[in-house]
Design goal:
8-stranded mixed sheet, Cytochrome Bc1 Complex, Chain A, domain 1, about 15% strand, disordered N terminus, 4 domains, 6-stranded mixed sheet, alpha+beta
């Protein structure tokens, strides 16, 4: 990232009012591309404004142009560690997570990569919230006041995050391949850093790093959401425009990776269950014109199911999964590929096929059909991203880190123009043996070397770039329960399925559909659990008239997505499409629902993928712990469709399920008589009702339907399960407290807010404050409370990740905090903050059209309207300390919690385990 001055993207409408507009009126308009306007503040800071009226929220994203590329000797991981420290607060913003939570934060995080570090928060739209967010980022840019004690605590949290990565063979193998590919450039060093650097960094060194890089001439600020342009510029000028630029000249990185002069080999030996192969080739940086062709090449290799690696390895049974991606930023990057092998495969043979497939373009050539398919897939992803202003705002900073935000659009243009000849050319230039890092070393008498082209002069390249017409904007729709009910039209289709329609203008004219078709009974589905669970996966892999690839190609062509899932009793579908392509998308949905192929060959691919994934999870703490907890809280008989299998049973289930059995279940049970469909977005109501009637017309099932109940079971309360997973640096703690109540119970809202105080808030809760911030025991800790809408079946679940040596302390500390909550209760101020924050979170969730469609569909199933949500909101708003504390004392008993811990506990004193 260059030391380009502060950079801002604002996506939204309505927020700001402090300085007179005249003060910002003379700001210079530098450039404008597709609705995004770049201005300069008085001190030279660039600002991007990106208005969007469709959702009542905004995102502020401040990106500091410093990442692992800028770290010196002994400083690995410093940029990432500093990211954590900037949540510790400033003299005027002392507890940043709590301040954000109190304002109903919908999303917040900080991330560090090779070229930049960013901090973002998404808040409900409003003048006060927007100025707060901009003021907060301007403040912590220069005034963060972390101390040695906070560093000592947070260091263990970051080390725990490091240990989480150490658990993943894929992550470590890729890290080692990248490190071997780069001899000198810092792209070869993991962003998380070296363990000793994380543990030993002195506070004065971290402060010096902060002082050097965290300055207004080295940041990019993205604000995405609903705002008023005039007020936005006023607030930006007030809080960022007044910052003084430092006198120091920011040092630039100058290390260039030498041309690789021979293949390199990496061997990783660790505990695990499934072998892997990986490879990397040096390629250009993100700004270079070849990057677009290389990204298309990666898609040709890795896409499913047409990808060359998928066809060569997955379809043949040699591998269960493959992936190909480009790692490109400010400086030249890599093409990265890996494959997860199936059991009992010859590693050397598979790797030979793997490498020859990637380097085989000279022999096989590239077809225009492959390029078209890859471009369509990439453009669909791009279009769906661009319809979400929050994702756009964050994505723009990645290109800013690569040199200029306008590359975001230029790269799209370049991808659309990629030809087969372009892909062939870059394959020939970069995918050569001497430029490769894999698990083998092969001496070469006459090495051929690839010289990586440097990035272009961006000032000349982008001087006249204007982009395209702006994407259509959505309407300003306030997603209150009352407004949603007023706009929603409900009814019943001719088949008997209920529908709810909420038409409204959306960004990019998007439409979201959530549907559920119900089938079977508890008795009739006995013995059919696996066929019902696998049915949707197989239905998604081709119809009677289209193969899996043809189906995916057509969805990519119309820029739409259709997802099917199933379980015993229901077949679910979700759809995302543009208004213009909605009729074609619904035709494809009908084809998938009514004319599935039930291909035995595709079932074999699914079987191989799933069994390999299950085998690979045998030594993973999180998976084995979650499976153990599920079995401890579910005691149904093996033939019962609600049964929770163990790992070996799950593998056997996949081995025994057949395409014929799945098809028989479908033909006998599934139909269009029972269910619900909700549609939200830009559509014509009369047309879509007609289309839905056509999809379900004449589709009847032989078997009757009756919902399968899920009552709370008589489990062994207070049970403790400890599982040993050797050589895993990270351990997991999960606990469940089953409770007999529904989401319409009198105490439901009190328990919801009580849980939010305990561990439901983002980085700000009693568990986070104690376990993460104070004790430094865990990178991730929290709690969740869920209650069923049909049956009296609820539960409080708690979780934490830690070093295995810290697990006993994690268990006892969480227990102490739960008991303290029950015994001492919540305080007035604490409750007031929690209620306000949680209600804002609820409001924000209703602004997401995909989630809103799901909520409306669920309401149809339950016979509810949004009045139920409004009443629940009102109950939360009126909760008293006495009501919450009484509910906590009545329902919560930590002694009844079922606790599972999994990790490498062989050296942990007093731990009795069962090995996995």
């Amino acid at each position: 990232m260059r030391r380009l001055a502060v950079f801002l993207v604002v996506t939204g409408c309505s927020l700001f009012s402090v300085l007179p507009w005249a003060a910002a009126q003379n700001l210079k308009l530098v450039s404008e591309v597709e609705g995004i306007s770049e201005y300069r503040l008085d001190n030279g800071i660039p600002v991007l404004l990106f208005p969007d009226q469709s959702k009542p929220k905004f995102t502020v994203n401040m990106t500091v142009l410093v990442g692992s590329r800028h770290e010196g000797y002994g400083e690995t991981g410093m940029a990432h560690l500093l990211e954590h420290m900037l949540f510790k607060g400033t003299p005027t913003h002392q507890d940043i997570p709590k301040l954000l939570k109190d304002r109903g934060v919908l999303n917040m995080n900080g991330t560090t990569s090779l070229d930049r570090t960013n901090y973002y928060e998404t808040l409900p739209a409003g003048d006060d919230n927007l100025e707060f967010a901009i003021r907060l980022e301007a403040d912590r840019l220069l005034n963060s006041n972390f101390n040695s004690e906070q560093l000592a605590s947070e260091m263990t949290v970051v080390r725990n995050e490091f240990e989480i990565g150490e658990n993943s063979p894929i992550s470590i193998l890729m890290q080692r391949v990248v490190a071997s590919a780069y001899e000198w450039h810092n792209y070869g060093k993991s962003t998380i850093g070296n363990r000793s650097d994380i543990e030993r960094v002195p506070i004065q060194n971290l402060r010096a790093f902060y002082t050097k890089f965290y300055q207004p001439d080295n940041i990019s600020l993205v604000v995405a959401g609903q705002f008023d342009k005039a007020k936005a510029l006023e607030y930006l000028q007030k809080h960022f425009g007044q910052l003084q630029l430092p006198e120091r000249k920011l040092p630039q990185t100058w290390t260039e990776e030498p041309v690789q002069d021979g293949e390199r080999q990496v061997t990783l030996r660790r505990v695990g269950d499934v072998p892997l192969v990986a490879a990397a080739w040096h390629v250009t940086n993100a700004a270079h014109g070849d990057h677009a062709a290389m990204e298309v090449l990666a898609e040709i290799l890795g896409m499913e199911p047409a990808g060359r690696l998928y066809q060569a390895l997955v379809k043949s049974g040699m591998a269960s999964s493959v992936q190909a991606m480009t790692l490109a930023g400010h400086d030249p990057g890599l093409l990265l590929c890996f494959a997860q092998l199936s059991a009992d495969q010859n590693m050397e043979h598979v790797q030979n096929v793997f490498v020859s497939t990637i380097q085989g373009f000279d022999n096989t050539g590239v077809t225009e059909e492959e390029v078209k398919r890859a471009v369509q897939s990439l453009m669909k992803q791009r279009e769906q991203e661009f319809a979400d202003t929050e994702r756009v705002a964050i994505g723009l900073t990645e290109w800013q880190a690569s040199g200029d935000w306008r590359l975001y659009f230029l790269h799209r243009d370049r991808i659309e123009k990629v030809t087969a000849a372009d892909v062939q050319r870059v394959a020939k230039a970069y995918l050569i043996t001497s430029n490769r890092t894999t698990g083998q070393f092969i001496p070469t008498v006459d090495p051929v070397r690839s010289r990586i082209a440097q990035g272009p002069d961006l000032s000349g390249l982008l001087a006249e770039y204007k982009g395209r017409a702006k994407i259509s904007e959505g309407e300003n729709f306030e997603p209150t329960p009352a407004n949603i009910d007023v706009r929603t039209v409900s009814g019943e289709l001719e088949s008997g399925v209920k529908y709810a329609l909420l038409p409204k203008k959306t960004r990019g004219e998007r439409v979201f559909i959530s549907g559920k078709l119900q089938f079977g009974t508890l008795d009739s589905l006995k013995g059919n659990r696996m066929a019902a669970s696998t049915m949707a996966d197989l239905m998604s892999r081709g119809t009677k008239s289209r193969s899996f690839q043809q189906l995916k190609d057509r969805l990519d062509e119309v820029r739409a997505s259709i997802s099917l899932t199933s379980d015993p009793g229901s077949l679910n579908f979700s759809v995302q499409a543009r208004r213009e392509q909605l009729p074609e998308t619904l035709d494809l949905l009908k084809e998938m629902l009514r004319e599935p192929a039930f291909s035995a060959d595709e079932l074999e691919v699914i079987r191989n993928e799933q069994i390999t994934q299950l085998e690979s999870s045998r030594s993973e703490p999180q998976m084995v712990a979650a499976m153990a907890l599920a079995r401890a809280t579910s005691k149904w008989a093996k033939e019962d469709p609600r049964y929770s299998p163990d790992l070996d049973e799950s593998i056997q289930d996949y081995k025994s399920v057949t395409a014929e059995g799945i098809q028989e279940l479908y033909e006998e049970f599934v139909g269009g008589q029972h269910g619900q469909i909700a549609v939200v977005g830009d559509f014509d109501s009369a047309t879509i009702v007609s289309d839905l009637n056509e999809i379900l017309a004449g589709w009847t099932s032989v078997q009757p339907f009756d919902r399968i109940p899920e009552p709370l079971q008589d489990v062994e309360f207070g049970k403790r399960i400890t599982i040993n997973t050797p050589d895993k640096a990270n351990a997991i703690y999960i606990a469940a407290m089953p409770l007999p109540l529904r989401d319409d119970a009198a105490d439901y809202e009190a328990l919801v807010v009580g849980n939010y105080i305990l561990g439901g808030g983002p980085l700000s809760s009693r568990l986070a404050d104690r376990v993460r911030k104070k004790e430094g025991l865990s990178y991730g800790v929290g709690s969740m409370f869920r209650a069923d809408s049909h049956d009296e079946n609820a539960g409080l679940m708690m979780f934490a990740m830690s070093n295995p040596e810290n697990t006993p302390k994690v268990v006892s500390t969480i227990g102490e905090e739960v008991n303290r909550l029950v015994e001492s209760g919540v305080a007035e101020v604490e409750l007031a903050d929690a209620k306000s924050s949680y209600l804002e979170t609820r409001k924000g969730s209703r602004s997401e059209d995909r989630g809103l469609a799901g909520l409306l569909r669920s309401n149809l199933e339950l016979g509810r309207t949004m009045e139920f949500s409004a009443a629940s909101d009102a109950k939360i708003a009126s909760l008293t300390v006495g009501q919450v504390n009484e509910a906590l004392k009545k329902w919560l008993d930590h002694g009844k919690s079922i606790i599972v811990t999994a990790g490498d506990f062989k050296d942990v004193p007093g731990t009795t385990t069962s090995d996995k």
